[in-house]
């Protein structure tokens, strides 16, 4: 834990290069963010469609089926958007980051960089951290948007819930600060956590095929647990005021 | 300015408490190609790590261009490394960059040269290793010999004073092996470098180097010019030069008598 914290602090200290050479970060936004778009869009759509079906089924028991838009939106913006997007992000981008850095180490690319008097924390780690940390909130927002669209497709287009009620109830129930901003904060925290775990595991991996494989697995397991644990803590503070 | 670029005197190094180098004396004069040879695990790679400052000596003197490498801080080490190049065993090219970008890497990181000038310099370096036409290829598209030549072009990109070669001939076919050997010699002579080569390839080394050090069990066992080495009567050198399986470096790892291991009572 101490070594990982030191690693994170070093990454922060060496982040100046990201301001001087933003193209390094943009490249990582592409690798971590753009290449994760398909899984985020498709997953968000299906999660929203399922929420629409399940929500309608439950709400009609109480005669409140027109509130299905609210249910879909709040579920996604507060919880499912940040959490599921972060879990998918850990599996797709986090594992890729760990494998890439672990293999760079195993094939002596990191050592070569050090021999060329280029600090790998600044040149390799910091741009990846900021690239992934920037991508994560955008992916979570996209996941939520796609989910709401999926809920709309099922509830309005298929089941026949009134379109005006669907959107207007959602508009009045979803609060910018309490719901959307808190969701964004969650996705920022999850993105940073996943990325630090992925970078540290890759950098710390034994330079062998087995070492990289185990590090990649640890990234997915550790960051998934971190996401769920942090989600509980953040939810307790944000929505329960603990 | 001393004639010796690298000077090592009484160098000791231990991993934890396990001694690896036990009092090495070694000198590389400016403009020389020096080979370091020895059996696997004798401490050759550790010696490279010490020269590059990756690890620090337990005791003894190690100076490069008059600088005590063991006493340098991180900034000092990085300044020294800008004047050093290293060819890794399998090239260690950056796999997400093209051949051109690999060679341009140090120029972009350490200089403010305009891109047009970087292009000219990179093409000149690639031309020197015969791969100007491959500048658009990715490392995955290169053969082992080509990757090593690109790595060599990258190592000389900033015109260093010293290049360290970690087993540059390993796994190469005879043609590529000869090409790399000739390139090491030619680049050393034309660019005025000093080269230190860790290798097992005795024949290629004796053909192209100026001086040879044999290391065994962390100590310099023998040293001399290729002619002196060929004429040496030392058992270790003789075994190494002729590739004999048994001798001062034994075939068998130390063990109890075979009969005792088999449980034969008459042993």
TrEMBL record, chain B:
Keyword ATP-binding: yes or no?
Answer: yes
Q: PROSITE patterns under this entry?
A: ABC_TRANSPORTER_1, ABC_TRANSPORTER_2
InterPro entries in alphabetical order:
AAA+_ATPase, ABC_transporter-like_ATP-bd, ABC_transporter-like_CS, P-loop_NTPase
Respond yes or no to whether keyword Cell membrane is given for this record.
yes
Q: Which Pfam family would be a valid example here?
A: ABC_tran
Q: A Gene Ontology MF term for this entry?
A: ATP binding
Q: Per its UniProt entry, which superkingdom is the organism in?
A: Bacteria
Keyword field: ATP-binding, Cell membrane, Membrane, Nucleotide-binding, Transport
Q: Give start and end of each ABC transporter domain.
A: 6-242
| Transmembrane segment boundaries | none
Mind telling me what this protein is named?
ABC transporter ATP-binding protein
Q: Which organism is it from?
A: Parasulfuritortus cantonensis
